[in-house]
Amino acid sequence: MTGVTDVLVVAPHPDDDVIGCGGSIAKHVRDGARVTVVIVIGRERSALDDAVTDAEFAAETEAAAKALGVHRCIRFDEPSRDFTLSRHVHLNLVRVLREVRPQVVYLPHDNDDDVEHRMVHQLTTEALWMAQSEFFQEAGDQPMPAPRLVLGYEVWAPMARFQYAEDIDGQIGTKVEAMRAYVSQLRHAAWDEAIRGLARYRSAVSTGTGHAEVFQVLGLRTPPPGGGPGGVHD
């Protein structure tokens, strides 16, 4: 991961980026990279948080991004449960990719239990190809170079197999702080404790450092020197 200046994280919903790769985001920021987060789908209201206004929920998203050190958070606000893989949303993501020109891209892994997570996986995979092609000039006329690394993260369904593990022991506190910014979501479940527990388990079976995040390797242009921080595990 040396020499990374720009990172793009594509999240289906608010807080998925924190759960899936919040520690890695904080680590990229620590190392001087600019991290852009795209949240594709807007808020889904629940009876548990119906009293929370849209402005208050947006403030939670901003507070979580600030805790992680995110450079920019872009919200597409696509409709939840009516989300479709339209040309419009593809071009919006291509436009961001061509602007950011990331060396590292994070997206949901390909077999997550949530259907919208799988749809955003497909969206991002297709948009990556589109952004590198000579077509789709309406989304910017300069094709982006291929990212060095494309990683799939876990949210609803922990991966049965993974290829990359990142030591986030130094960032677990920041990740939990960012999750706790989503006060409304903690009314649904103790996500702050869940992500800490999963990170401890992932470390036990991979890095052995205390806390880790694991990823599906979806694209690798140039292997990171020495296997990269945390090494590669399977």
From TrEMBL:
Species assigned in the record: Streptomyces rochei (Streptomyces parvullus)
Protein name: Deacetylase
PANTHER family from the UniProt entry: N-ACETYL-ALPHA-D-GLUCOSAMINYL L-MALATE DEACETYLASE 1, N-ACETYLGLUCOSAMINYL-PHOSPHATIDYLINOSITOL DE-N-ACETYLASE-RELATED
Encoding gene per record: stn2I
InterPro entries recorded: GlcNAc_PI_deacetylase-related, LmbE-like_dom_sf
Catalytic activity, EC: 3.5.1.-
Gene Ontology molecular function, alphabetical: hydrolase activity, acting on carbon-nitrogen (but not peptide) bonds, in linear amides
Record keywords: Hydrolase, Zinc
Top enzyme category: hydrolase
Phylogenetic classification of the source organism: Bacteria, Bacillati, Actinomycetota, Actinomycetes, Kitasatosporales
Statement: the UniProt record of this protein carries the keyword Transmembrane helix: no
